[in-house]
Amino acid sequence: MLVAPVGPADVYSAALGGIYGYASAGRLPCVAGHDGVGLVARVGPGVKGALAEGDLVQPAAPLMGTWRAAAVWRAKALTRVGSLGARWRDAAGGGGAAAAAICRDAAGAAGAANGGAGGKVRGEIKGDDSTSTSRLGGGVDVLLPLEYLAVSRELLAAYRLLEMHDLKPGDCVILNAPNSTVGRAVLQLARLLKLRTLALLRPPAASPPPPPVNDSQGGVGPARQQGAATDTGDAGGRDEARWRQVAERLVALGATHVLRDEGAIQAQLGPLKHFARPSLALDAVGGASAARMADALCDGGTLVVYGCLGGAAPALDWKAYVFRGLTLKGFNARAWAAAHPSRAARALASISRLVAAGLLSLEFTEYEFKPEWRDAAEHAAGEQQGGPRGGSRALMMMPGLAAFRGHGGAEP
């Protein structure tokens, strides 16, 4: 393994003993970790060309245990996402840090060759069938920097959540968990598509009800003025100031308005004159938050459930389906990619061009696997609870294999 992202899903799995329809309870002890990027160092005699030494791969299923330095897996359990070519031994010995440098060089070279994606933004997200690869000398072939490959499932989720609906410029999308990896990607993609977004951000405890943070005046306008009067001398004031800082960052990413994920959303929409109700809601929390978004949808709107960070099923009223014609859908990016590999590959190529052009960006915090894995897990738990490090994705960088170090690529 080269790198393993640590997110709320990993924490959630550990707390509940299995998600995604799989049960890890009863198979303990087990290795944690759903996602990551690995490097093929050896192939068995029966693989027959499906994978080769130097290929970059990702687990095709959850709960495969990516928090480890090395593993033996069946070829059909892996998805190829690139190759380090002749430089793979450098990455095998140097681990995640060495692989990241190689991938960064390759992705940068591809971005320069493609000339950016600024003129094709809508095509990139709404069905452009073209593909591209990033090549350096020695057969290095990657689409994205290593850290983006590590979270490519979430990037595909954000892409597909918008692509699969018939949205046009000016339409409104409402979403919760906006500071998650998927949420931040959705906000940036929606801005490129000229969609309006309502981001429901979990409020601090015992918070007052000031107006929403918005970009109607080229920034956060009236919300910033309210925040200036906040008493930051106590814990409540600090929490409120932190909430506003996060809200302002979300506006900078593309959120039209940031609302508090509490009470009735319609009441918060009241002061926003001439603001049409959203036609699409993206739920990653469940419980009352999902019900809140469903209540805010226009008649005939669609609620898509793609996660359940709150641990409770969406509390939806049957009357919303009967009398308002709402539609409820579920979405799983991993299952979609497995069922549509060619479409997923094209989507990932489009994402890579947006990243190369600087139109889609994420923040990462790297941890060394052996000495800092607890810190990475605490980071992810804090992200789930809306902590101060929310918005930056924790990555565990693997150490590489000693057999490949300092011997000029000698056999282990």
Automatic annotation (TrEMBL):
For this UniProt record, the keywords arranged alphabetically read as follows: Mitochondrion, NADP, Oxidoreductase, Transit peptide
GO biological process: what's one of them?
fatty acid metabolic process
Segment forming the signal sequence: none
Compartment list: Mitochondrion
Q: Does the keyword Transit peptide apply?
A: yes
GO CC annotation, single:
mitochondrion
Keyword NADP (UniProt)? yes
Q: Which residues lie within the region annotated Disordered?
A: 112-132, 203-238
Q: What GO terms are given for molecular function?
A: oxidoreductase activity
SUPFAM superfamilies reported in the protein's UniProt record: GroES-like, NAD(P)-binding Rossmann-fold domains
Kindly give the PANTHER family that the UniProt entry links to this protein.
ENOYL-[ACYL-CARRIER-PROTEIN] REDUCTASE, MITOCHONDRIAL
The similarity comment for this entry is:
Belongs to the zinc-containing alcohol dehydrogenase family. Quinone oxidoreductase subfamily.
Output this protein's name. Answer: DnaJ-like protein
Q: What is the originating organism of this protein?
A: Monoraphidium neglectum
